[in-house]
Design brief:
Elements: E1 6-15, E2 18-28, E3 33-37, H1 44-51, E4 59-64, E5 67-68, H2 74-79, E6 82-84, H3 97-109, H4 125-134, H5 150-162, E7 168-172, H6 180-197, E8 200-204, H7 208-214, E9 217-222, E10 225-230, H8 232-236, H9 239-245
Helix pairs in contact: 3-4, 3-5
The protein binds adenosine-5'-diphosphate (ADP) and magnesium ion.
Adenosine-5'-diphosphate (ADP) binds next to β2 and α1.
């Protein structure tokens, strides 16, 4: 067995009296597409935020490639090839598609200041254009992100996470509010990226059909705890999971 790409050990996070994440542990293996599902409020986004340092967990450890990452800033994580998307879109509507993706790359590199010193794109245009082409957005390269459809903006948002040159990408509801055509496109592109680059994905998603057909393994959270883990088929027929979704 190779070392896990991501290892989560006993992560806990409370907000006031509410235990949002109550001791979650699991490993993510190299090249897999792992789905993280669970009812609303089960702690999925909070767990992502604890993994990547947007929140400080009350307890627990996170390792990327065997290296503890607690306390590291986003730009340091990006040096390890770790990228993410947020549940809310993080595109800048007043900027073009290309500039949004270049800016994401600069943030990842921690080179925002380089803009002031005569390297306007920090050498990122080529990489950004490759991603734009990969996500089939080339015809929209110079369009303001704010004038794209919601689904197209979600694709731009995903492309921004990939500017970390990633080994591991965490996607928080990439298919939320996206129409069926864009959904199929997004799924097909993620699978293709995984196949071409061996990138590992952890995907939070409510759309069951999307998650079941995209992921090779699924972890289910309920009330801040892991209640099930298995293949899509195993999860589909798991009574504990069915009960959790029915509000048990
Ligand atoms: N910043 C916050 N402040 C207070 N409570 C929060 C905050 N973020 C999340 N919560 C609470 O933590 C729980 C888990 O939320 P969240 O991680 O967003 O769930 P999910 O992403 O699975 O829908 C919910 O009860 C939510 O209300
Ligand atoms: Mg969420």
């Amino acid at each position: 067995m190779t070392e896990p790409v991501l290892s989560i050990r006993n992560i806990e996070k409370s907000f006031g009296g509410i235990k949002a994440v109550g001791g979650v542990s699991f490993d993510v293996h190299d090249g897999e597409i792992l789905g993280l599902i669970g009812p609303n409020g089960s702690g999925k986004s909070t767990l992502f935020n604890c993994i990547l340092g947007q929140l400080t967990p009350d307890a627990g450890e996170v390792e990327v490639n065997g290296q503890k990452i607690s306390g590291k800033r986003a730009s340091e994580l990006n040096k390890l090839g770790v990228g993410r998307t947020f549940q809310q879109l993080s595109v800048f509507p007043q900027m073009t598609v290309l500039d949004n993706i270049i800016l994401a790359g600069q943030e990842h590199q921690g080179t925002m200041l380089s803009r002031l010193f005569g390297k306007p794109d920090a050498g990122l245009t080529g990489e950004a254009e490759k991603l734009i082409a990969f996500f089939r957005l080339s015809h929209l390269r110079d369009t303001l992100a704010g004038s794209l459809s919601y689904g197209q903006q979600k694709l731009v948002d995903a492309a921004m996470a990939f500017m970390a040159g990633p080994r591991l990408v965490l996607l928080d509801e990439p298919a939320g509010g996206v129409n069926l055509t864009m959904l199929a496109n997004l799924k097909e592109r993620l699978v293709a990226y995984n196949a071409e680059h061996g990138t590992t994905f952890v995907v939070i998603e409510h759309n069951m059909e999307f998650v079941m057909s995209l992921c090779t393994r699924i972890i289910v959270l309920a009330e801040g705890r892991v209640i099930a883990e298995g293949t899509p088929d195993e999860i589909r027929s798991n009574q504990t999971v069915i009960d959790a979704y029915l509000g048990g």
